[in-house]
Amino acid sequence: MKHLQSLSDLDRALADPKGTVVLYKHSTQCGICDGAIDQIEQFLKDHPASAEFYYLDLLAHRDVSNEIAQRLGVKHESPQAIVLEGGKVAAVLNHRAIRVPALEKALHV
Description:
The chain has helices spanning 7-14, 31-46, 62-72, 100-106; strands at residues 2-4, 20-26, 52-57, 80-85, 88-94. It is an alpha/beta fold.
């Protein structure tokens, strides 16, 4: 999983119009986020080549989170996994909906 730490990182993450990308927004002070990241890590273990995953630490990089909301038109929530296919939003999973089966469905694996 790559880290989003700047707007230029976000530009690179959004630059691939053909591939599947997942932007994961995480708060290090949120218990629900702890469960969500465990689910994402399990998903990546089970399906390592399914998509390019990007991790955003919300507390450290709120400006990047705000830019994601603005560019993609997706209301900010935390935790949040935004699935992009062909550069467009294909699915959004929030809070406790971030589970391996939901990720498998959203990513067609």
